[in-house]
């Protein structure tokens, strides 16, 4: 059992105990037709692989600032929990020691890590795990590198700040406040088209949902004509 010292352990461990194999994140992209479903076990395994990549290849650890320049996506969720399992801090803008980004935000990532001479990894976000093409020399391809890492991790015992200067305890408190304000419970299946571009959005649109044991249906590029059928098919109880 993971110690409840990291944000990842605090959120993932209760889900792993309560229902390890039921859907926790169901991701749709209506522009491509993609649908991916992750259980708590699958999410935790991807997060652990990411944590091992961050620690072993990208030199990240407690007190590291890791820029996450990624959209609301199931792989982004795995990256976030990977960062927190090693006790590092997620930042969504500004200077960082390490950056993970899409190819379209590579210049932004380079600027973020410039002062620290830090590492950059690019995610293709391809559903089949294909690498990002034509990356510059010295930039890590996430899809290629993450697959060789183990899917278990020993969580950091002394984590630093978790999210944009907030401690683990502060983030969990914000999650509780957000969930309470919207009356979210573990029985909910929440559909969201929201973004994760600020700490508040990340709490409201992802972390608060998972922290109470609810499940998330995240839709990118939503097709309004498909939404009602999806709500019925996915047994959605709440729409953000």
Describe this protein's structure.
With 240 residues, this protein is α/β, with parallel strands linked by helices. Helix content is 38%, strand content 18%. It contains eight helices and ten strands. It has helices spanning 7-18, 40-56, 74-85, 106-113, 142-146, 168-181, 199-211, 224-233; strands spanning 23-29, 34-39, 65-69, 89-91, 98-101, 119-122, 140-141, 189-192, 215-220, 238-239. The strands form two sheets. Strands 2-1-9-8-10 form a five-stranded mixed sheet. A five-stranded parallel sheet has the order 4-3-5-6-7, with helices on both faces. Helix 2 (40-56) crosses helix 3 and helix 6 (168-181) crosses helix 7 (199-211). The protein is globular.
In short:
This is TIGR03089 family protein. With 240 residues, this protein is an alpha/beta fold.
How would you describe this structure in keywords?
240 residues, Rossmann fold, 5-stranded mixed sheet, 5-stranded parallel sheet, 10 strands, 18% strand, ANL_N_sf, Rv3268
Which range does the strand content fall in?
15-25%
Q: Calculate Rg over CA atoms.
A: 17 Å
What's the tally of helices? 8
Helix-residue proportion: 25-40%
State mean pLDDT (0 to 100 scale).
Answer: 96
Question: What's the overall geometry?
Answer: globular
Domains (count): 1
The CATH architecture: 3-Layer(aba) Sandwich
Topology, number of strands: 10
Largest beta sheet: what is the strand line-up?
2-1-9-8-10
Return the string of H and E elements: HEEHEHEEHEEHHEHEHE
Top-tier CATH class: Alpha Beta
């Amino acid at each position: 059992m993971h110690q409840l010292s990291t944000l990842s352990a605090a959120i993932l461990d209760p889900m792993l105990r309560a229902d390890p194999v039921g859907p926790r994140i169901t991701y749709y992209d209506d522009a491509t037709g993609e649908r991916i479903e992750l259980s708590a076990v699958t999410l935790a395994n991807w997060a652990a692989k990411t944590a091992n990549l961050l620690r072993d290849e990208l030199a990240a650890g407690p007190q590291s600032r890791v820029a996450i320049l990624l959209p609301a996506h199931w792989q982004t969720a795995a990256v976030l929990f990977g960062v927190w399992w090693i006790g590092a801090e997620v930042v969504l803008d500004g200077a960082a020691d390490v950056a993970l980004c899409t190819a379209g935000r590579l210049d932004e990532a380079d600027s973020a890590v410039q002062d620290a001479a830090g590492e950059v990894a690019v995610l293709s976000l391809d559903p089949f795990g294909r690498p990002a093409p034509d990356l510059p020399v010295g930039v890590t391809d996430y899809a290629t590198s993450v697959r060789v890492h183990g899917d278990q991790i020993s969580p950091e015992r002394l984590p630093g700040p978790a999210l944009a200067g907030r401690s683990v305890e502060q983030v969990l408190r914000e999650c509780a406040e957000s969930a309470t304000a919207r009356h979210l419970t573990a029985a909910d299946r929440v559909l969201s088209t929201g973004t994760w571009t600020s700490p508040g959005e990340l709490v409201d649109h992802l972390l608060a949902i998972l922290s109470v044991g609810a499940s998330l249906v995240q839709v990118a590029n939503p097709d309004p004509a498909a939404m009602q059928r999806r709500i019925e098919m996915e047994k959605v109880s709440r729409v953000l």
